[in-house]
Amino acid sequence: MGSTSSTSTSNVDNKMPSSKPADGSPRQSSHKNVRVKRLPQQETLGLDAAVQNDVPLSTWSPPPTSRQTEKTFTNVLLLGESGVGKSTFINAFVNYLKFDKLELARNGQPITVMPVSFLLTVGNTFDERIVRFGDDDSNEIFDHPGQSVTQQCKSYVFTIGTRTKLRLIDTPGMGDTRGLDQDDLNMQEILSFINNLPHLNAICILLKPNESRLNVGFRSYFSRLIEFLGENVRNNVIFCFTNTRATFFTPGNTALQLRELLANLRIKDIPFKKSNTFCFDSESFRYIVACQNRIDFEESQKQDYEESWVYSVKESMRLLTYICIDLQMNSRTEWKSIDYARFQINQVIRPMLETIRNLFRNLILHDEKSSTKFIELSPIPIYYPSSICIKCKRTLKCCNDFWVYSDQTDIISEKCPQCGSSRHSHIDVNYPLDYKSFDNTNSQYIDEIKKELDQLKEAIITFRNFISNTNQTVHLSSDPILTILNRIISEEKYICVEKQTEDLNSILKEKLDGFHAEYQQRPSKSESNRNSIDLEKIYKQIEKITQMETIRNQMNAIEQYNKAYMVQQEKVLC
């Protein structure tokens, strides 16, 4: 998926227009609203009063403060190793909010915000039963052990009292058995998703107790996420432990591994103490799911699960109190870090290079044709993950004597619907381009084109040096600028062959080849270490570039795509 730049004002908390497919047909939602009974008179109920009066936590609201005078979104990002149980935790947490007693959950209708599937050993002969509950969801895949069950980020929103909407963001697990490349894709998915939020209230790290070691991939990407969000995020990190009944509702031996991890992070002083650590036992949720599947348990087991449920309900209230009252939200404007700057640069590379290509077109029209008719880029907003098949014959149209692509995008799938080629033969796009002709008789227009072209060339080199000096991930070492530039040159080469033209497109290819050579010949400025990089200068350069009209229009199209994507990936529980 694409993401916006630092100048974007995307805020998914605002009311969104319903996104529709390109054919105008309404997008169908597969989600059903789940209504949770609320008691509006109890909206300022405190923790002790809620527990003593057997009031469901869904009725509780943080007391009004200067920061909470109206219904607001509380955004919580969940991060953990593959298999730690993030999806189960979300399911359990929602039920803790609705049912303060296990008996009520067992006799009522448990909420499943996503499907549940697990293996349970039952009876004296230890028979294995696969327990399933909830509707199928293509985002939750259980058939490949070791792979992250959750395939994409997805958020779940439900109301707490009358003022707060809690958004829990489920993420693909780290340490996927498909390897580091898949972990990289998962991390890019996470970073892209949260970049569309105006703020984060908490980064919740889910862990199992009594782990002898933490997965190397998890260590790497926890570190990467924290560095992405920057220094100010340290106090927004919380730790939630699942399945803690066996460790008497404590972190167990994992605490030692976690302290070691925190000590080795570049960002220091992330707290790990009772106030920001919460222990749950999600097995009690599995118990009520098993009961729905008519599996019997011994009385002693029921008592254990009852105790686990009561403890988990209290921890849920403590967690809500901590997040909604004790923590200051972490605004996206505070995400000033090297990694966030790299992320923003990656989002603006294609808009910059497409703009450079079009500036070359307009210079050629002036130099070769003495024309006052020029070409402007017209990005087309799309509202679903799309791609262009490079194996299919692509559509061309003529605009001011230039041949340009007029691509039709396809919804991303495993195979091309036209030629049947694999997913690897597709280019993901978050906006296709159209081209329009316009007149400009201003004698200074060509000087403006040349000035803008020089600014973009210099910015490209600056960004190239920044990426090179800050790239510490070997398997992501390819130059993203060169990758897209090579693709653009290949497109022009294809046009020249297809149309057998020696006219304007061939001149354009020569100019792009020259820019390619200049890009590679310009020496890289190497910084001795990350601390010597002028980060403020980079952010100012990003802001300057994204204020250019042609760049801004493309970034706006990306923003519209991101908003629609967020709507599609969100399930609202009323």
UniProtKB/TrEMBL annotation:
Originating organism: Rotaria socialis
Residue ranges of the region described as Disordered: 1-39
Protein name: G domain-containing protein
Residue ranges with Low complexity bias: 1-10
Transmembrane segments: none
Biased composition, class Basic residues, residue ranges: 29-38
Domain of life (superkingdom): Eukaryota
InterPro entries reported in the protein's UniProt record: P-loop_NTPase, Sigma_54_int_dom_ATP-bd_1
Signal sequence bounds: none
